[in-house]
Amino acid sequence: MPCVLMPRDKCGMLKITVVEDQRQRRLIVEGRLIAPWAAELTSAYENAKTDLEERELVVDLRSLTAISPEGEAVLLRLMREKARILCGVYMREVLKQLARKACGSLREATDGSTDSDM
Question: For residue 49, which of 22, 24, 75 has the smallest C-alpha distance?
Answer without folding.
Answer: 24
